[in-house]
Backbone:
């Protein structure tokens, strides 16, 4: 990608919560993929290693995004309870029409921005995403 | 964990502990005064620890409010609120310094050492201007700040409808203000001559009622949220405003003879609790910033 375009994309991702979340999700997938793609070469043959890798990738793709969503939701709920109070947390946690993890984060991000300012809200969202990504990665590694 | 971080973590608890200790000492001194009959005990308490508590508290209020304002970017509504609140805190500090230090005949007053000749005239000026800066001016700035806060609550969908009890409380307070205004009109009609300081001071009651109405709206929204750090921040401001009104009503009841001893002594101490409330507001917001940046979410804990 040309340098100028790359800078534009970087700047957009820094400001856009939705794209930042997508990027975080993709990075988490790539990290996991790279982890799977490094078998011990001295123990496995190329064909055997590739077969193993493909099997794990299929297994990974077949898994639903439930862990990721649950981790995001847990992060959002913990922050909401700490900052706003137990009733706001209850209202969010018990909502039957609750969106998925990323949707929930998008819906509460303006609340964080309103009461904590843009800078702090960005840090909160990034921490929730990082926490969810790490927990997701750890769950995947322990499952594989 | 570093010492500064441990200290920062407990800013609201330090304020609460200091207030409780101060009140405990104050009440002990009150009992001692009544037992021994030595008036100097209670005078010394209000002239030294009392004055230092009020000035120190308002200085902390300025510093914490300034810190809160700095966390927001230009144009953010709550940033504007904190700017006005910082202005109100600065007026509170100026009023406290004038009233408690320059307006008092104590060894905390530097004029006692520097210029004892002009001490009395400076004290008189300080006693007149202090309550105006720390009264109507502070209230007007705070009311503007809380107006922005209510706007943020309304736009965020966290603004709760007022109950009948809230409306009744507001009506009661409005009746009290009208009664006070009536007393002022009656005094003027009977030939009382008021100077500019006194006339500006009359605006403090309507401003206090406006602040109380805002405090009631904030309190209702805070109750519907539960007690998170942000809710506690605005709850502390609402409590401080309510306590200021209580102190004001107490003073009026005292002067009017409605509050006999020992109940009238409550009005002397209520100002300390109100001052603590004004400091606790920004202290909880600072704590919210800190926790929001460093909180370890359950996901992170599990991953670790």
Residues:
């Amino acid at each position: 990608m040309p340098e100028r375009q790359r800078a534009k994309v970087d700047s957009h991702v820094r400001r856009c919560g939705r794209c930042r979340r997508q990027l975080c999700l993709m990075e988490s997938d790539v990290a996991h993929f790279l982890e799977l793609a490094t078998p011990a070469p001295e123990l496995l043959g190329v064909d055997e290693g590739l077969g193993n890798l493909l099997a794990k990738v299929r297994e990974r793709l077949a898994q639903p995004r439930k862990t990721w969503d649950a981790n995001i939701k847990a992060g959002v709920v913990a922050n909401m309870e700490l900052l706003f109070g137990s009733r706001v947390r209850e209202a969010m946690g018990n909502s039957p029409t609750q969106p998925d993890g990323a949707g929930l984060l998008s819906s509460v991000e303006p609340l964080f921005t309103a009461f904590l300012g843009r800078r702090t809200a960005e840090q909160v969202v990034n921490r929730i995403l990082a926490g969810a990504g790490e927990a997701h990665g750890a769950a995947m590694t322990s499952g594989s | 964990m570093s010492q500064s971080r441990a200290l920062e973590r407990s800013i609201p608890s330090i304020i609460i502990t200091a207030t409780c200790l101060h009140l405990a000492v104050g009440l002990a001194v009150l009992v001692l005064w009544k037992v021994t009959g030595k008036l100097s005990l209670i005078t010394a308490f209000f002239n030294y620890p009392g004055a230092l508590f009020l000035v120190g508290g308002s200085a902390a209020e300025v510093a914490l409010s300034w810190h809160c304002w700095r966390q927001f970017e230009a144009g953010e509504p709550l940033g504007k609120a904190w700017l006005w609140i910082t202005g109100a805190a600065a007026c509170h500090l100026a009023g406290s310094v004038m009233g408690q230090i320059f307006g008092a005949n104590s060894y905390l007053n530097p004029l006692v050492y520097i210029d004892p000749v002009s001490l009395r005239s400076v004290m008189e000026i300080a006693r007149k201007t202090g309550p105006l800066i720390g009264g109507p001016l502070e209230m007007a700035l705070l009311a503007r700040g809380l107006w922005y806060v209510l706007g943020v609550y309304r736009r965020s969908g966290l603004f709760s409808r007022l109950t009948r009890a809230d409306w009744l409380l507001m009506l009661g307070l409005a009746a009290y203000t009208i009664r006070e205004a009536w007393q002022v009109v009656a005094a003027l009609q009977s030939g009382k001559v008021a100077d500019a300081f006194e006339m500006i001071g009359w605006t403090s009651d309507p401003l206090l009622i406006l602040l109380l109405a805002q405090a009631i709206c904030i309190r209702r929204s805070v109750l519907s949220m539960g007690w998170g750090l942000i809710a506690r921040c605005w709850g502390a401001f609402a409590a401080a405003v309510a306590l200021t009104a209580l102190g004001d009503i107490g003073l009026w009841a005292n002067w009017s003879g409605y509050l006999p001893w020992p109940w009238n002594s409550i009005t002397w101490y209520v100002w300390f609790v109100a001052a603590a409330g004004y400091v606790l507001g920004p202290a909880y917001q600072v704590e919210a910033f800190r926790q929001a940046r460093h909180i370890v979410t359950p996901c992170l804990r599990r991953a670790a």
Notes: Residues 299-304 of chain B have pLDDT under 50 and may be disordered.
